[in-house]
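Posted in: Structural Biology > Protein-Ligand Complexes

Title: Requesting predicted complex, zinc ion in pocket

I'd be grateful if someone could produce the 3D structure tokens for the following input. Sequence and ligand are given below.
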Amino acid sequence: MPADQPPRSPEDGIEAAHRALRAGAVSRRGFLTATAAAAGAAMAGSARAEQASAMAATPVAGASPKGKARNLIFFVSDGMSHGTLALCNLFMRDRFERESRWTSWIRDERPRRGLIDTASFDSYVTDSAAASSAWSVGSRVENSSLCVLPDGSAPEPIWLRARRTGRAVGVVTTTRATHATPAGFIANIPDRELEDDIARQYVERGVDLVMGGGARHFPSAMLRDASNITLVTDRDGLLGAAREPAAALASGRRFYGLFAESHMAYEVERPTNQPSLAEMTAAALATLATRDGGFCLQVEAGRVDHAAHNNDAGSIVFDQCAGDAALAACLDWVKGRDDTLLVATTDHGNANPGIQVYGAEATARFRRLQGWRRSYEWLLAQLNLVPADDRTGDILSTLIEHGMQVRLKPSEAMGLDGWLRGHRVELFDERNKKGGALASVMANHVGVAFLGPNHTSDHVECAATGPGSEMLPAFGHLTDVHRMVAAALDLPEAQRLKAPALSGARSKPD
Ligand SMILES: [Zn+2]
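-- Reply #1 --
Done. Output follows.
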């Protein structure tokens, strides 16, 4: 659209503002003014709102799906930079002498692929709530918001639309089940931190299958009052239920597997009573497939993102590999079928990890990740058991030797003393947070360095196979992925739900 013409719709206005900002044509203040004006236009009257709604349902570039999908599997590795995908593949080549399934799928089966812009309504760098909302409702929202638009309206999340077509819907994740990525497909909540409210919406809105952590947000009275929910709380319970998948969702019953009070463990230190993501995924597919009307399932390797925030090289690789096994379960399930759309993607990059040394030294150092037994989360929790004044680099060094089988040099342990006392040891301020200096020291031993502790503005990987996948654009936005999925499932138009009130200040993005 030429720059001197007024926007035809609120979405045009917002997109134009984003384009201008990207091109450096407007200041951030001007950008916010322009996007607010566009959002204001969306509130101006029902006719405009209907126009916006119609646009949201418009297939990409005039295309339409060749066939309709009965089922949808939406696989997310949360916070997966391209470097994370590569590290998993390099690790699996070295340790198992084969490619990751994600890589061999792309190489051998050539799914449709797109590069996806993840910017939210108010930021180049999205959080998981805004990204999941974009997939769910096809509009950009502000960071921390779950399917509540900047004008306060609350369009129907995608799993609710799918339920109206008779499909069963579910979410499987390694984070709390109420965390932002699964919540975006189900809930309308102005702040992602309101996880008790999110849990209540899961139950009230009839989600058929929920697996992950976050038991603390599902009071037993709430589950009991629902009366039709089967609850399992450990790996044995899940595997037992999976042997009779038809029973789990029979006669309108729902199936919940809540395996931890908060997040489930990182794969590198997963206890035997917690199922793997692949086990949860296989059980979910077997269970949902017993429903007559088809199903929609989101699977999330959610703690890849947490490991990236912590700059924890071992945890990021092990969790991405666990996600790869879950993706393999999905690919095995769709093999030979022509009625299921499978999408594999991420919501944003995070920390951009990569091997930063050359030659044989790169191989030797990276191989040390195979000795990793613990996460940085464990490491720092152990350190926090020591009185603050007594936390030294030597103690941290001893913990690293125990948990990661890596021996620091005395000078490195000494260097970490200042970081433990809160000194500004890195010149990029963000790198003094979370794993920060610890990750810099560990890069000397495992070769993997990180950009920082935050999400990035990267364009990200998206691959899709099955009916409707031909609508995935070679380059697009998260909202285009929504359009592909909604068209493939032939979903009814989204209803406008009652907009919830904002109860307090927005939480920080994560
Ligand atoms: Zn995050």
